[in-house]
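__Record contents__

***
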Amino acid sequence: MSIRSPQRPLLGHILQWRILLSLFFCLALALAPSLAEARAGSSYSSGGGSSMGSRGTRTFENNGAAPVTRSMTQTPSTSPLAGAGVGAGAGALGGGSFFQRHPFMTGLAGGFLGSMLFSGLGGGIGGIGHVFGGLLTVLIIGLLIFFVIRLFSGRGFSFAGAGGGMPLSAGAAAAPAPQRYRGHDTTVGDADLTAFQGIHAAVQEAWGRGDLGKMRQLMTPEMLSYFNEELTRNTSQGVQNVVSDVRLLKGEITESWEEGDLQYATAFMRWSSIDHVVRLGQPDQVVSGDPRTPSESEEMWTFVRRRGGNWLLSAIQQV
């Protein structure tokens, strides 16, 4: 006669939970990159509120407008000490925990724990006993390897917290960051503001006609490439963005500066216009927008010129 153990149902539930937790952990690891990618922002569209172009050394500065998302200007690089936190600096300079400084131990411990997790799935009480026995084995082996590494690295058996010295990373973090070059501030006159307003109106008119030849005279090659890209996209979709009756409501200089022989100036622009989208070659078929009611828009336009030359549009930021 066999005797049924009263612990069998309990052990079965435990094993089921261990299997479910293991599957959940693996699924989380597999889906983590795709979930992060799904949260990673939206695509570019000049009509959808994108900020684009270059503002010299101030391209990525916060000027009260939307940050530039498309630019040929490289993002300012930061040194490892300035860009990393105190914990990251400690790892780079030899600080941090034991497992940060000795990744071999991290892999070894992970392998032992993984093997214990899956080898004990069918072991019942004996499997659980093997888990604790294996954990003790990991601790013993880990301590032995720890002492061997400390001995051969010449550190003896002292610990990081035993000495009273300040960590290198703390001293590095306390050092002031070097000042980044951003040109020097200048002033522009009313004649320059009038030129900006003229460029603004001309760009809007050329955009409504899809006139790249006119745009080439008004903006930098970088900005021309963005406008050309959007015109090509509209053509491929069989639509045309019609802009007319442009009326500037407000234009004011917010900042101006020089970088060598280049002069930059940023102006706040608020205007009204008839802005709508129609079928290509069929102006009566409205896809979106209102061809009768004007709408208002606000943007920051940055202009650049060589000393003594003509101003060109170099960046547009949404407000």
Observations:
- The chain has a mean pLDDT of 73.
- Residues 8-38 form the longest helix (31 residues).
- Residues 119 and 137 are 15 Å apart (CA to CA).
